[in-house]
Amino acid sequence: MSFEKTDIFNAGINPFKLIGKDWYLLTSGDEKGYNTMTASWGQMGVLWGSPAFTCVVRPNRKTFEFMEKNDLFTVSFFSENYRNVLSFCGSHSGRDCDKAKETGITPLFIDGTTAFEEADMIFVCRKLYAQDLSEEFVKDGKIMKFYESDPFHKSFTGEIIGAYIKK
Question: Which domain range does residue 86 map to?
Answer without folding.
Answer: 3-166
